[in-house]
Amino acid sequence: TAGAIVKARLLQETQQRAHQLSTLNEVTRQLTSTIELEPLLQNILENAVGILNCEAGSLFLIDEQTDELVFKVTAGPVAKDLLGKRLPPGSGIVGRAVTKPGPVIENNAQGSLGRFSGTDKQTGFVTRALMAMPLGAKDRVIGVIEVINRRDGLPFVEDDQNLLSAFAGQAAVAIENARLFTLTDQELAARVEELS
Question: Is the pTM for the entire model greater than 0.70?
Answer without folding.
Answer: yes
